[in-house]
Structures are given as C-alpha cells and as structure tokens.
Amino acid sequence: SQFQMPELQGLIQEQNPAIDLCGLHASEAMHVLNNELNNRRKIARSTGRRLQAIIISNPRTPARLTAAIEQYLLEHGLQYTQAQPGLFRVLLQ
C-alpha cells in the first residue's frame, strides 16, 4: 500500500496495527479511535514503553474526518505528527 514507508515498518507491530478509519463517518471514527487509543495507552503503561500509533484516514476520506481526528488528538493533549495528509503518527506513553 502507499503507506508502507520504510520508517513505519518497525512501528507496526502485531499488538499495534495501524488504526484504519478510512470510509467511516466522523462519529463512528471517533468511537473507534477512542477505544483503540485507550487500549494502546494501557499497553504503553503496562509495559512502561512509549508506543507510536499510526492512524490512517486516506486522502479520499472527507476532510472533516481528518479535521475531527486532529481535533480529537489536540483535545486529548496527544503528541502527533501528520506524515502526509490523512496519515497521523501519535506518541503514547
């Protein structure tokens, strides 16, 4: 897929697959995102390691979904970068 950039390879582990929100409505996507990030935060806390979560909402996704994801991350004070449009990398610790 177009998201297989070399620096991502090491980040996507079995317990930490990319959170794929493509094709979801914003409200649905926020529900999934919240659950997924909470689960991963628990893993990060229990292992005492920093975890990077990858969130995908592809460029064909309505812009409001990408905006909603960004707003969610900001509201929850999460550190993130947007590697390319619709591809977020979030640091959980």
How would you describe the overall organization of this protein?
With 93 residues, the chain is of the alpha+beta class. The protein has one domain (10-92): 2-Layer Sandwich (Ribosomal Protein S8, Chain: A, domain 1). The chain is built from 3 helices and 4 strands; from the N terminus they run H-E-H-E-H-E-E. It has helices at residues 6-9, 26-47, 63-75; strands at residues 19-20, 51-56, 79-84, 87-92. A 4-stranded mixed β-sheet has the order 1-2-4-3, covered by helices on one side. Helix 2 (26-47) runs parallel beside helix 3 (63-75).
Number of domains: 1
Strand content: 15-25%
User: What coarse outline follows from CA principal-axis ratios?
Assistant: globular
Separation, N- and C-terminal Cα atoms: 28 Å
- Sheet with most strands: strand arrangement: 1-2-4-3
Global mean pLDDT = 82
Can you give the helix content as a percent range?
40-55%
Query: From the helix content, strand content and strand pairing, which structural class follows?
Result: alpha+beta
Q: What ranges have pLDDT less than 50 throughout 5 or more consecutive residues?
A: 6-12
Largest sheet: 4 strands, mixed
What is the β-strand count? Answer: 4
Question: For the record, what CATH class applies?
Answer: Alpha Beta
Question: What is the ordering of alpha helices and beta strands?
Answer: HEHEHEE
Which value, in Å, is the CA radius of gyration? 12 Å
